[in-house]
Structure formats: C-alpha cells, structure tokens
Amino acid sequence: MTTNGFDEQALDAAYRKALAAEKAGRTEAAATAYRACLGIDPDDHVGARLRLAALGVGETPSSAGEAYVTTLFDQQAEAFEDILVGQLGYGVPGLIGETLARLGFEHFDRALDLGCGTGLVGTVLDGRVDEMLGIDLSENMIEIAFDSGAYDHLYIGEALGFLEDFDEPEPFDVILAADVLPYLGDLAPLFSLAATRLAPRGLFVASTEALADMAGDGAAKGANAETGFAVGSDHRFHHGESYVRAALERAGFELVAFEPITVRMQEGEPAPGHLFVARRTGG
Ligand SMILES: C[S@@+](CC[C@H](N)C(=O)[O-])C[C@H]1O[C@@H](n2cnc3c(N)ncnc32)[C@H](O)[C@@H]1O
C-alpha cells in the first residue's frame, strides 16, 4: 500500500501485463489485465477505463477521470511545450487568439481558462484581458503557468467542480478550454455549467478532436449516434460535430463560429478537430 491507498507495485505489474498483451494483439488478455488494474485502483490512475473503451470491450466512460489526468499531466508538464508545440505542432492557443481577433473580439474584462495547462492560452491573450483566471488539475502544469506571468489567479482543481463551486459570483465574459474536451467525453455538464458562469452574451471558446475523421486502423470504438463521442486509439475522446452543436444549443449557446482545425500532428498525420466560439443567449 502507498499514500494513494492502493498497491502501486501490483498496479504496475498488472498495467505492464495489459500493455504487453495489447501490443501483441491479445485483446482478451489485455482486457483482463486492465480490469485487474481497476480492481487494484478503482480511481484509475493508469487510465484503464479509457484503454478498455479504446479496445472496444468496455463502456465509454463519461470522462478521462481526475486521477488519470492529474497523473498524466504531472508527468508530462516539464516536457509538454517542447513535445506538443515544438515537435507535434500544437497550435490551438494561437488559433484561438487569431479567431477571436478576426471575429472582432479584441478585449475581455474577465476570462477563465479551463485546463489552462502551462499557460499557452493566457500568454496568447496577454494584454487583451483585464483579469485572467486559470484552473487545472495538474499542479506541475499550474506551476509553469504561474511562471508565465499571464494569469492573475491560478487554481488547482477540476474544471466542472470549479465552475460549480467557485465562490466569486462575478461572471466571466469569456471562458476558454483549449484541447481539454478530449479529456471529457460527455460535454453536456461542462456546457451547462459554463453557461451559468458567463455574463449575458459571454463567449465560450473551445477545441475538440473530430470523431467523423477517425477511420480505418485509428477508428474510435463505440462511436454511435446516441452518444456522439468515443474514445480513440489515442485514448482521448473524439466528438462528433452534430453532437457538439446540439449540446451547445441545449445549454443555451448560439454559434458565432465552428471551424475545422488541425489540432496537432499525430503519428505523422494532421489530427483533425474543431474550434468553436459560442455565445450565451438569453438574459
Ligand atoms: C492538452 S493540455 C492543454 C493545456 C492548455 N489548455 C493548452 O492549450 O496548452 C490539457 C490540460 O487540461 C487539463 N485537464 C484535463 N481535464 C481536466 C479537468 N476535468 N479539469 C481541469 N483540468 C483538466 C490537463 O491537466 C491538462 O493540463
């Protein structure tokens, strides 16, 4: 046992077994070992639920889970910008900055960056926002965002919980989420909570990874018209365009823009996605 409350050695052994079986194409054995991981660690630090879903043998979870996201990004924080931006050409924060400027949204009073990571969005919007808040599950990512100097306030926590519980009633005129929705499957709770925190006609700006383009070997398993999202072979959630549009409308948003983008390179190929700018309707 460790401070995490589970047997880390047993988890490590089961996880290695699962990865080896998956690599060898032994899906049943891999699934058994991933289920063993969940038996040892129900909080799922290794992301076994995502892997089962990607194998097509487990239910699609509604999110990647806090334990997995925190572990993954705490590990990746230091190398994040070198790998993602430098090697894989990740450019969503820059696209957000360009798109908002092109649409005539030059200045914001109060912005909230959900899943702010190392602070790339804050850096792009620096000088265009009076008060910039950021929130992320990963303490190591937040430390780098802090060093960027682009945020007035930073919080370590889960995005939906933050939107629900944040005790400052003052609304935001923009809420941003760059490359965060791939860690959230069911978008309805996020969209409704974001709407409650926005000023009337406030903007919600976010990127997704596209579902329709997942084809052939990279096919997302379990994708269907009912859910509109699925876990891809990259272990991230991919969202269908019509699903995202309908979920925004249901949460009280009208679309200002919904554009195809390349999120980054993935195994030498452009990873397709969407960038949307939605405006809260009603009073
Ligand atoms: C791919 S990174 C993107 C970071 C940043 N938005 C950017 O564009 O560079 C995804 C970030 O979202 C955070 N994240 C994912 N799910 C989250 C959640 N439910 N609540 C808070 N942060 C989350 C991760 O910890 C990670 O820092």
UniProtKB/TrEMBL annotation:
One of its GO terms (molecular function) is methyltransferase activity. Keywords: Methyltransferase, Transferase. GO terms for biological process: methylation. CDD domains: AdoMet_MTases (cd02440). It comes from the Bacteria. Pfam families: Methyltransf_23. PANTHER family: TRANS-ACONITATE 2-METHYLTRANSFERASE-RELATED. This is Methyltransferase domain-containing protein.
